[in-house]
Amino acid sequence: MLAEELNRYGLWDHLPAELRETAVAEVATGCYPLHSDFLSEQVRFFADGEELAEGGVEGFLRALAPALVRYGVVLEVETVPDVDDYVVSINGIRCVVWSPEDWEGEDPWALSTVRPLAVVNRLLAAAGCGAPRAHTLYAGGNEGLVFLMDPRAAAAMRASGLFPGHEVPADGESAKWPPPES
After folding, report:
1. What is the C-alpha to C-alpha distance for residues 97 and 116, in angstroms, rounded to an integer?
2. Within 10 A of 79 (CB to CB), how many other CB atoms are there?
3. Where are the domains of the chain?
4. Of 62, 113, 128, 136, which has fewest CB within 10 angstroms of its CB?
5. Taking the model in full, what pTM does it have?
6. At what angle do helices 108-126 and 57-69 cross, to 10 degrees?
């Protein structure tokens, strides 16, 4: 059952046992697993693509930072002055959030979401954190969401067939937009 898989893959590990049981029971009765208030600011984070593209990446990553500490990643983020490109430094890694060319035919709001998250995912991997990675829903949209979750949880949601492809979190490193339908 999907609820048990999501629990096994740690979606609710941040919760006390009784709340974890409540979350599992909600999903077992048909509730969408990622709309739960139990996930706010521990697993689920708002990522407004327009705001990120307009200089909000540093602030967004600072808001994400406390949750990353659980996984051994301490973020150091700063916006890097650049003539043309929007660049941030994430733990010393230069990340081009967007360049002027990205505004010609690309989706700069989505790129402003996934490019910094690709760096975060590399930092999680380097920290020896085997499971949690940043995943996105509606990347680049004004209602964009980021989830820190085990990729197997997203795969379980996809494999369940219960949700359309656009309602299953995509790997945060993927710059493909929109995500493929399943």
Report:
1. 7
2. 15
3. 2-43+144-171, 49-130
4. 128
5. 0.90
6. 30
Q: Where are the beta strands (DSSP E) in the chain?
A: 44-46, 77-80, 86-90, 93-98, 133-137, 145-149, 170-171
Question: Could you read off the pLDDT of 61-77 as tens digits, one per residue?
Answer: 999 999 999 999 999 99
Q: For the sheet with 77-80, list strands across it.
A: 77-80, 86-90, 93-98
**How far are the Cα atoms of 20, 41, 86, 143, 169 from residue 166, in angstroms, in the given order?**
26, 22, 28, 13, 8
Structure tokens at 123: 């930092």
Is-contact 127 71, C-beta < 8 A?
yes
Contact between residue 61 and residue 88 where contact means Cβ atoms under 8 Å apart: yes
Rounded distance, CA 32 to CA 162, Å? 9
What tens digit of pLDDT does each residue of 26-59 get?
Answer: 999 999 999 888 898 889 999 999 999 999 999 9
